[in-house]
Amino acid sequence: GDSVTQMEGPVTLSEEACLTINCTYTATGYPSLFWYVQYPGEGLQLLLKATKADDKGSNKGFEATYRKETTSFHLEKGSVQVSDSAVYFCALSANTGNQFYFGTGTSLTVIP
Amino acid sequence: GAGVSQSPSNKVTEKGKDVELRCDPISGHTALYWYRQSLGQGLEFLIYFQGNSAPDKSGLPSDRFSAERTGGSVSTLTIQRTQQEDSAVYLCASSSVTFTDTQYFGPGTRLTVL
Question: What HEC string does chain B produce?
């Protein structure tokens, strides 16, 4: 079945460091791909998404490119800030449109 | 406008009791989703409603779980004969039409089964 595998955490970075959180997926057809973020004490919210191959989603300095050839949707940011500390979830919308799959989440802590 | 709301925010129950969890989606959103987040695990998709219909109920963990949505708005997730492994945070989300639309999440209901 469809699934999402993301990099295990936790990840600790210094401010202004580069971030990559790996996400790979297994799916039939052409799923849509998402990154959701949960800041401390807050609910889940959409960070970015891509609905077809080669699309790049971007928001708040974060980017992810939908790579069908490698079945990946890695999250990247060139310079992280303390305020980026959160749990990041990669997610997939199945081609059938009736199921949605989240990864296990990657906790990021950015230290000053 | 108001976001997704869920009630109760916390529920403690005894093993074997039934519980009802409620979700009020954003007004006008036709799609509604239920998820379960267990300690140390990711979000587990339970069920999706398009209007009042749930096209696929295979994500529900067992026949003790059921969900309904009425009037294209409020949804209730019912767990019968609760077990300790049902303890988790139950999250509800809604989106305007389909899965590719942004899902807006509620604050969740933390269920503890003693």
Answer: CCCCEEECCEEEECCCCCEEEEEECCCCCCEEEEEEECCCCCEEEEEEEECCECCCCCCCCCCCEEEEECCCCCEEEEECCCCHHHCEEEEEEEECCCCCCCCEECCCEEEEEC
Cβ distance of A44 and B93 shorter than 8 Å: yes
Contact yes or no for B42 and A49 at CB 8 A: no
Q: Which of the residue ranges A28-32, A102-106, B12-16 has the most confident prediction, judged by mean pLDDT? A: B12-16
Say how far apart CA A31 and CA A93 lie, in whole Å. 5
pLDDT at B1 over 60: no
Q: CB A49 to CB B102 under 8 A? A: yes
Nearest to B42 among A96, A98, A103 (CB): A103
Q: Does B1 touch chain A (CB under 8 A)?
A: no
How much is the pLDDT for B101?
84
pLDDT tens figures, B29-80: 999 999 999 876 778 999 999 999 998 888 899 999 999 999 889 999 999 9
C-alpha span between A33 and A100 (Å, rounded): 10
